[in-house]
Design goal:
NADP (chains A, B); oxidoreductase (chains A, B); N-(1-d-carboxylethyl)-l-norvaline Dehydrogenase, domain 2; alpha/beta; homodimer; globular
Chain lengths: 356, 356
């Protein structure tokens, strides 16, 4: 039997180390899609400084491709598609559109190694019949201009988005378990990374969301690192109550987060003066993962009548910041002449004239 | 009887036109304190483009001074002290400290031509026995590097902060009324400006606050003009409910704002793509009038148990933005080694080590 063929999409801090973990294991053929920095990586490879894999220079996986289409043409079809890009459904390209060129067979397994809630829904709707798996990464890794700084071990929790009770869908469930097991077997490098089957990966996902939807969102809004927010009393004013809101939303969909997680997160960055990725995105005028990290949880809360007094104010504010970033990126240019009547009509006018 | 002697403190858009209104009237001697741009104004005067006074070049009032102390020494004592500066009690200098060098007699009348709520309290506490009057300006005027652009007529509402019932304190009340009348007589230029006795100036002040505490605060937080916020649905998501909160806080101190004012303000800037002064301050990395515009109303709300679900989230967020601006202005430099233990202790550590 030939080795599984794996496509890794997204060559940032997470994607590059995922490709390294797969390559290091040796159990698969690895193709990495590198978009903006293709020429750089193709010529010089990655330079990597990893807390577990050590210092590597000129590192490349088996195959590089400029686009998902090119990857499919040259190196496909794939058994596994590992998606590690940012997830910005309100951006120019949705994740389904990114993945689509690689989905040609009926049996590609799509693994979303991404943040956020309800990210599987549009993927399953677009590719019915495909197995879509939930990966939650606890890696610490950043990419800049060919260099990967990997300070926290590559740790992946992998499971079903919606694990079926044993009595139902026994066949597909069994197949999901086999695929999870196979992927772990080609990804795991004992001592270098961690990857485990997570029977309750939704809980893991919601718990990670408790950090992202609070710390990422607030730091992006006020342009301060976490400790500077805490100097201003944010722990009690905003952080603890906002995390309690996420916990309540999770509970409304049957997920009970660990009680201790709030205090763990409140203190996880003590003394580090760390700026989360969404804050960094805002500073770089890059689109934020606002909808999957905050918008989708807020929509679940509304559906289940869960009060969100803090997150419900943060969300419209952050949407406006995203709007500003889109303007700065020239994704649209507002013509003021379109907005001269009642300001109550402006959202409708924008929707009609400025959405592609 | 000699003409009243008037000191105008603050030479921005409001202060420059106030000095012009007084000078044009001719009924007083006008001294203007010009701090940062003294050399420029002393040499070349103001260039003014006013919707009512027309185009003026090389304009100066009778006297200029570099500081309140110099004004007092050269041109004092004063009958009226008109304070037109920004009011930033959490900044390097409070308004009481600014005014203090000019208060040497017992009979100076202090007029606060400034935004915000409860601004008279520290002033009255610092200068007991002095008449402190409330001025609310509806002018449209901006100052930049010697030039004043005065697009909206200088309109002033003047009254007692706490008008006494007729039966009480008849003498001081009568004296306040006489001073208000006198100041109006030396300020009013029919056709060029408007100034009127306002028996209910607290209502006028709260109504102006409804704009400032909502539009100023939100635009400063998301760095967008008003119409761009409205394109994003802010009218219903945030603006109307936040203004209703201010209305409820005013009601808790016996001030009933006009119902129609919410819709007036929602539509006052339709089509103008206007950025309020606090947003401009934030962009220029200048301190914002956060405490008098939002902090004091929030404190009144807490005292009177008025719920402020939106403003109560905006306030801690905006405090963090103010903290960022203070850092950018080098008002303090955080030494990260001071903040290494539990983040719950950071506010206390900051209070102890970084407050002057």
């Amino acid at each position: 039997m030939s080795k599984p063929n794996v496509l890794v999409i997204g060559s940032g801090g997470v994607g590059a180390i995922s490709a390294l973990s797969l390559s290091h294991n040796g159990g698969s053929t690895v193709t990495l899609v590198v978009r903006s920095d293709y020429d750089l990586i193709n010529e010089k490879g990655f330079s990597i400084n990893s807390c577990t894999y050590g210092k590597l220079t000129n590192w490349k996986p088996h195959n590089l491709a400029r686009s998902v289409s090119e990857a499919r043409e040259k190196y496909g079809p794939f058994d596994y598609i590992l998606l590690t890009t940012k997830n910005v459904p309100d951006g120019p390209t949705t994740c389904e559109e990114i993945v689509a060129p690689a989905v040609t067979e009926q049996n590609e397994v799509i693994i979303l190694l991404q943040n956020g809630i309800d990210i599987e829904k549009p993927m399953i709707a677009k590719f019915p019949g495909h197995l879509v798996l939930s990966g939650v990464s606890h890696i610490g890794s950043t990419y800049y201009h060919g260099h990967v700084e990997n300070k926290g071990i590559d740790a992946v929790f992998l499971g079903d988005f919606n694990p079926k009770p044993a009595c139902q869908h026994r066949a597909s469930s069994a197949s999901a378990a086999a695929k999870i097991e196979e992927f772990i077997s080609i990804y795991h490098n004992p001592g270098f990374n961690r990857i485990q089957v997570d029977a309750n990966v939704q809980k893991t996902r919601w718990e990670k969301l408790m950090y992202n939807s609070v710390f990422n969102v607030m730091t992006a809004l006020v342009d301060l690192d976490v400790n500077s927010m805490q100097i201003n009393g944010a722990n009690d004013d905003l952080i603890r109550p906002a995390m309690a809101e996420i916990m309540a939303i999770a509970r409304s969909v049957g997920v009970e987060c660990d009680q201790g997680i709030v205090e763990k997160f409140v203190h996880i960055g003590d003394g580090l003066f760390y700026s989360p990725s969404m804050c960094v995105d805002m500073r770089k005028k890059q689109l934020m993962e606002l909808e999957v990290i905050l918008g989708n949880p807020i929509r679940i809360a509304r559906e289940h009548s869960v009060p969100t007094p803090i997150l419900g104010v943060l969300y419209p504010l952050l949407k406006m910041v995203q709007f500003r970033i889109k303007q700065e990126k020239k994704m649209f240019v507002i013509d003021q002449r379109d907005f001269q009547g009642s300001s109550d009509d402006y959202p409708r006018i924008f929707e009609e004239k400025y959405r592609h």
